[in-house]
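sry for the spam today, last one i promise. struct tokens for design, 59 residues
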């Protein structure tokens, strides 16, 4: 799960950067997809790290 959280975190960061660029270009569809990707991947990373810790606990 360690590497998965890093990869999903990078995806969320790139989605945030893409959202800013999409606002500059005024591309509505790109804004929508980037925001959805940022929210989904970002929330997954934050909640996983919150509840499992980093590095995750093994039960």
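last one done:
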């Amino acid at each position: 799960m360690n590497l998965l959280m890093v990869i999903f975190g990078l995806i969320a960061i790139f989605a945030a950067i893409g959202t800013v660029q999409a606002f500059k270009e005024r591309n509505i569809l790109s804004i929508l997809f980037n925001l959805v990707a940022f929210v989904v991947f970002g929330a997954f990373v934050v909640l996983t790290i919150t509840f499992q810790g980093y590095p995750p606990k093994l039960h």
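The chain is about 85% helix and 0% strand. ok im logging off now
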